Amino acid sequence: MLTENSQSAVRASAAGYILKVSPALRENERFRYGSGMNHILHVVGARPNFVKAAPVLRAIGQHDLRQTLVHTGQHYDRNLSDVFFAQLEIPDPDVNLEVGSGSHAWQTAEIMRRFETVVLDRKPDIVLVYGDVNSTVAAALVCAKLGVRVGHVESGLRSFDRTMPEEINRVVTDQLSDVLFTPSEDADANLFREGVPKERIHFVGNVMIDSLIRLLPIAKACSRNGFPESFALLTLHRPSNVDNSEKLRDLLDCLTCVGEELPIIFPVHPRTRQRISEFALDCDNLRLLEPMPYIEFLSLQSRAAVVITDSGGIQEETTFLGIPCLTLRTNTERPITVTAGTNILVGDDRGRLVRELKDLLQGKKKKANVPPLWDGHSADRIAGILRRM
Ligand code: UD1
């Protein structure tokens, strides 16, 4: 914590006075600006963070660098957290902030409050944050205020839709970051346009695909476990799709009709399960399951005739796997999955969803390619860059 003396010294410095630097301030300055990058602290909080951080932890582990892992506890259910740590072979977190659920402001503020103490105590040289969840922006804000460097993994993605909480998290985190690791070249372009200096931006590829490539052989070896030969895989959790009763009813009705022709497997996110029960909605013809572990879900994705989703990461995973993806959103922060990959944005247009599904079932598939640097080595590039710094 800044002492009263050091705070006034910093203020005096800002006003241009000559400082007599106290030992406490000197220690603080070293902490603020670092003396090389030896201690890397990672912050994860929600399911997609775990998939992104796993390969980075492993790649940095090959170098002579100290690592600390902080779990904010944003996701705390066994199915959304522990199982991912086990399957992705992530070491137990050094610290769990156990923040749990709450409103956006409460959750973000509570993570900030609890994380600040950890940063002051552990004194990392850089903090790596992942993706676009509340834990990401909360940790970035804490570090920026303490003058600790921030590295953002999966930087630069933009949906240009500020009604999405994740878009706000992305924009703010990127503005606060010192080192920005991007998954695709559109992300670099977004960052340039927002005035981020070029030397801070590193196009490294997609770390989520690193995890996928590593575990795909195991996923492919999983048994079918009673799943049908041909099926659609559905995931839904965006507030914009599930928090409005009319919209969710309309969507589930439409999918129930589709389910008469093609079995639909639906691992249900806790938020969505709550809404389905709150709005007393029918899910006839849909096969509802608990949220699935990473490997089992990957196994289903790789075998699906089509994936219907509103997730961000699944748009990328299906593109890599060459599996058709119909995204229930009007925009995406991952446009490369549309321009190069298998993704089609069907938005809120239920007629379009049904037409696209019919086309797919008749074998009319989009031609698709895997984007550059989605090659399983993105985390190695990140580790190399941090090592050189
Ligand atoms: C969060 C991310 C979203 C990401 C998603 C992946 C933000 C703003 N959103 O959304 O970008 O795609 O994770 O799953 O950070 N809940 C549980 N158990 C848990 C966690 C949550 O039951 O372990 C329930 C709670 O009722 C909670 C609700 O799910 O209120 C929403 O959880 P929250 O972490 O706020 O956001 P997600 O919808 O999971």
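^ uridine-diphosphate-N-acetylglucosamine complex. The two ends are 26 Å apart (CA to CA). Residues 104-122 form the longest helix (19 residues).
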